[in-house]
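Researcher: We plan to redesign the surface later, but first we want a full-length starting point. Tokens attached.
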């Protein structure tokens, strides 16, 4: 399991950081746009996924852990449901529904957070690298 986690982190982190940098450049038009609704939203999401838990102390770790479990449940349901669906349309719908649910509920997904939090930091969120990692 630890080796799988290492592979997930080492495989996804560079791509997420590059994508976050590209999106940040796109959103800010390389420094020409300093504020917009998109920038505010990305910053709010990034700070909500870090600073909001930090304010709760140890309780924040518990909430984060529970939200990650529920998210993994939703993603796993999408995979299983896709295997059950006999046609492509059904597979797409089966994958889409649980993944949409985890996004709509604001659950925590490691790979999504590898993109969203650094993107928020690049756009000006008040988050340190330490706060991002811990």
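Model: Full-length starting sequence:
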């Amino acid at each position: 399991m630890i080796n799988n986690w290492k592979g997930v982190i080492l495989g996804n982190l560079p791509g997420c950081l590059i994508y976050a940098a590209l999106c940040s450049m796109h959103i800010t038009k390389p420094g020409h746009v300093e504020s917009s609704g998109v920038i505010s939203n990305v910053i709010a999401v990034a700070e909500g996924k870090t600073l909001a838990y930090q304010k709760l102390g140890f309780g924040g770790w518990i909430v984060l852990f529970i939200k990650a479990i529920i998210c993994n449940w939703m993603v796993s349901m999408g995979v299983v449901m896709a295997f059950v669906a006999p046609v492509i349309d059904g597979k797409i719908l089966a994958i889409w529904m649980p993944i949409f649910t985890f996004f709509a509920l604001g659950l925590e997904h490691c790979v999504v957070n590898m993109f969203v939090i650094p993107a928020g930091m690049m756009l000006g969120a008040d988050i340190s690298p330490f706060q991002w990692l811990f």
